[in-house]
Amino acid sequence: TVLLGLWMLGANIDYYLASGWMHAKLALVALLAVYHVACGRMVRQFAAGRNARGHVFYRWFNELPVIVLFGSVILVVVKPF
Question: Exposed e or buried b for every residue in 67-81, given b needs 16+ CB within 10 A?
């Protein structure tokens, strides 16, 4: 997905890099990549039996990508900058 996104970005690089909404969207995509890495780390902690957080944390942590996704879609549709 990241490679195809970069390919599409490269197809019209001047337009996208001049658009502020694209900078914000790329920041949100980077945030999702960090979230993905954090999830992998948590899975390894669970496997090792070193879970230090309660279910409330994980319920809120689970909602983070949904909020970021909504923000990303809104940026693409509205293009506010």
Answer: ebeeebeebeeeeee
Please state, in angstroms and rounded to a whole number, the distance separating the CA atoms of residues 29 and 69.
Answer: 9
The pLDDT tens digits for 11-57 are 999 998 899 999 999 999 999 999 999 999 999 999 999 998 999 99
Going from the C-alpha of 46 to that of each of 39, 41, 49, 64, 69, the distances in angstroms are 10, 9, 5, 20, 26
Is the pTM higher than 0.85? The answer reads no
> For 79, left (φ over 0), alpha (ψ -120 to 50), or beta?
left
